[in-house]
């Protein structure tokens, strides 16, 4: 049983439909006390880090997520909130994954980083199983996690940054696996198989 | 490397996909869901749906098909048609759309762009610009309500000033419909796109004029747009997406190939 955490930010349906296409029926939960009943969980997120983080704290998700010991994966802003700190709004995150979220230095390239880009895996991990150098995924963001020991895959856009991260039972994907066609489906499937 | 996006555009009317020539004479192309699935499976990078009668009829587009699209495809998609407020946009995004595109309502009330930016973030807000080259004056002019030939009219904006203004207000992407080229399949408006690219720091999508496979490599190589939108060449199966992608890759355009 997989839960999708609903903090009131949009795009819950896209994630739900992606799992349904894999033959999994996720449950959307809105109260933190429900979380422990599930084998794994997804923390989606779009919007501004400040607003989303405030909601996590006010609604009691911070506690529930930090006590959770089964696989939990953040997507896009959800991933950023699992990390230590975000430059967007200058706020502390949940601190489950080491590292900082900083504004992407795109130089002369257009910003936000929007579209399909290749990712390079770092070492081997169950979450990146079957991903090869030509695989592309769909990104939409202007802040990113700085590459460090939690990085499982990185991407390049003006600079290198983390595309996939994991630490203990927590993982995150900066791109949108739910919108990344077959490669995205493979990655969501990897998450469903991931044992910690 | 970030891939250049190939974006089939599906004009929606009464629940079906239609295609007109120079924004007029609409003929039925097929079922929305079937075409959306077909294009995403063939390797389209993104889809755009315009409910063309919504703005003209002063109503929000039909939300039912938006949810069906979200259920059935696994690539990003953008929806346009009569979105006039933050609450309209929220309804569309809740169904699973990734972006919303506004055109005539933004001309009527430019602050809408800022309101959408503040509520949903820049990445969701696409502004469609219908630009007409007026030979007499030699100016690029913005038009509105182009979904209906009887309602279409020139606005007070020149294309250059409107593009600068929508960026200042917080647009995250611009789709530039070069009206003189629309539906005639004689190639993208390279001159205009080059000129507008120079003014545009956010992603810019070329629209109008694609007729053959070489038109795509030309627009990417000469204008540095981020994506190319096309309708009839895909609907009429003049160009198959996998063939197009392979051609682009062979011509050194950054492309997402799907096996």
Automatic annotation (TrEMBL), chain A:
Function field: IGPS catalyzes the conversion of PRFAR and glutamine to IGP, AICAR and glutamate. The HisH subunit catalyzes the hydrolysis of glutamine to glutamate and ammonia as part of the synthesis of IGP and AICAR. The resulting ammonia molecule is channeled to the active site of HisF.
Enzyme Commission number(s) of this protein: 4.3.2.10, 3.5.1.2
Localization: Cytoplasm
Example of a GO MF term: lyase activity
This protein's GO CC annotations: cytoplasm
GO BP term (any one): L-histidine biosynthetic process
Taxonomic source organism: Pseudoalteromonas luteoviolacea DSM 6061
Tagged with keyword Ribonucleoprotein: no
Catalyzed reactions per annotation: 5-[(5-phospho-1-deoxy-D-ribulos-1-ylimino)methylamino]-1-(5-phospho-beta-D-ribosyl)imidazole-4-carboxamide + L-glutamine = D-erythro-1-(imidazol-4-yl)glycerol 3-phosphate + 5-amino-1-(5-phospho-beta-D-ribosyl)imidazole-4-carboxamide + L-glutamate + H(+); L-glutamine + H2O = L-glutamate + NH4(+)
Active site: 76 (nucleophile), 176, 178
The protein, known as: Imidazole glycerol phosphate synthase subunit HisH
Keyword rRNA processing found: no
Domain Glutamine amidotransferase: 6-192
Gene that produces this protein: hisH
Automatic annotation (TrEMBL), chain B:
Active site positions, chain numbering: 11, 130
Name of the coding gene: hisF
Record GO biological process: L-histidine biosynthetic process
Keyword field: Amino-acid biosynthesis, Cytoplasm, Histidine biosynthesis, Lyase
Family under the similarity heading: Belongs to the HisA/HisF family.
Name of the molecule in the record: Imidazole glycerol phosphate synthase subunit HisF
EC number: 4.3.2.10
Function: IGPS catalyzes the conversion of PRFAR and glutamine to IGP, AICAR and glutamate. The HisF subunit catalyzes the cyclization activity that produces IGP and AICAR from PRFAR using the ammonia provided by the HisH subunit.
Pfam families: His_biosynth
Gene3D superfamilies: Aldolase class I (3.20.20.70)
GO cellular component terms listed in the entry, alphabetical order: cytoplasm
An example molecular function term from Gene Ontology annotations: imidazoleglycerol-phosphate synthase activity
Functional pathway: Amino-acid biosynthesis; L-histidine biosynthesis; L-histidine from 5-phospho-alpha-D-ribose 1-diphosphate: step 5/9
Subunit structure of this chain's protein: Heterodimer of HisH and HisF.
